[in-house]
Design brief:
By secondary structure, this protein is an alpha+beta fold. 29% of the residues lie in helices and 28% in strands. It has eight helices and 18 strands. A hairpin with an 8-residue loop joins strand 1 and strand 2.
């Protein structure tokens, strides 16, 4: 930059100008060159930032669901095969205490506890390449016997006992299907970490989709007897045993109802009763849906 200023000083014919005038001309030129240089450097420094950010965004991947993966634990039996070796026979390896397997071809013991089969496969392949055993090693790893993840099922099932899981978490219906739920089983409680959860009604589809995990204790019990109450213009008033799915029209037919107008009083969230009126003719004609009853409903039949 200094060379540029000297060049201008020598080339330009400033001899006829006084020294002060020469400085007034050269100093602005020098300042403009300094500013242009600093702006150029700043632009070069900030231009690389978006590239780094885009690379980071591109490499991020979502975590798999716990219902889709299985992490190996002590007691599991692994089936490890070298697909491109002369021998295609599988070799079984049991995960021993400490989460280890003994794989001589890969140099001895390998820690596998807490890893998926795919992660173990990648570790063995990398170790074989590092030891120059096989630069193009094709390793296959699977779980032959699932022994490390288990739940206990008790209560109203045909086959109580221990059930082994094949994923980190599985839906409740998978475990109950294997244990064979009895007809009198109506509710389930899941004990997790020593703390019992809330009872769930097995007639609710959402209950069957609850997930269980290793260490859970699943207890199936009967559904406690519940009632609804009906009175007014009917032949058989009183307290009635509630059956899941029963509708208003079914309850009226069972009680010998003869009226046309009906009111259902039901306890709201604040503990107060909420009353809704229905007309039997509209229900029978299909103009109004036949409402399902709930435990504790109060039904009053009018003319």
């Amino acid at each position: 930059m200094t060379a540029i200023v000297l060049f201008l000083y020598r080339v330009c014919d400033f001899k006829h100008l006084p020294l002060l005038m020469k400085n007034l001309i050269l100093l602005p030129l020098l300042a403009s060159l300094v500013c242009a240089s600093s702006v150029s450097v700043s632009a070069q420094e900030t231009a690389v930032v978006p590239i780094k950010a885009s690379v980071t965004a591109a490499t991020s991947t979502p975590e798999p669901s716990l219902t889709e993966i299985y992490r190996v634990g002590v007691g599991d039996v692994l089936d490890i095969r070298l697909l491109n070796s002369a021998s295609k026979s599988s070799t079984l390896f049991t995960v021993v205490a400490g989460g280890l397997i003994d794989l001589p071809i890969a140099g001895g013991t390998i820690s596998v506890a807490g890893l998926t089969a795919e992660e173990i496969q990648n570790i063995i392949s990398a170790e074989l390449k590092r030891r120059a055993v096989d630069d193009k090693a094709q390793v296959s790893v699977g779980v032959r016997q699932y022994m490390s993840h288990s739940v206990t099922v008790t209560g109203l099932v045909v086959n109580p006992g221990t059930r082994f899981l094949r994923r980190e978490m599985v839906p409740l219906y998978v475990v109950l299907a294997e244990s064979q739920l009895r007809n009198d089983g109506g509710r389930v409680v899941i004990l997790r970490g020593g703390t019992p959860g809330q009872p769930h009604d097995l007639s609710d589809p959402a209950t069957l989709n609850l997930t269980v995990q290793s260490g859970d204790v699943i207890t199936v019990t009967t559904r406690p007897q519940e009632f609804y109450y009906i009175g007014g213009r009917i032949n058989y008033p009183g307290q009635k045993v509630f059956q899941p799915g029963i509708t208003l029209l079914q309850a009226l037919l069972a009680a010998g109802g003869t009226g046309n107008k009906v009111e259902i009083s039901r306890e709201g969230a604040d503990g107060r009763l909420v009353t809704i009126g229905f007309t039997i003719k509209q229900i029978k004609s299909g103009a109004v849906q036949d409402p399902k009853l709930q435990p504790g409903d109060r039904i009053e039949v009018f003319k």
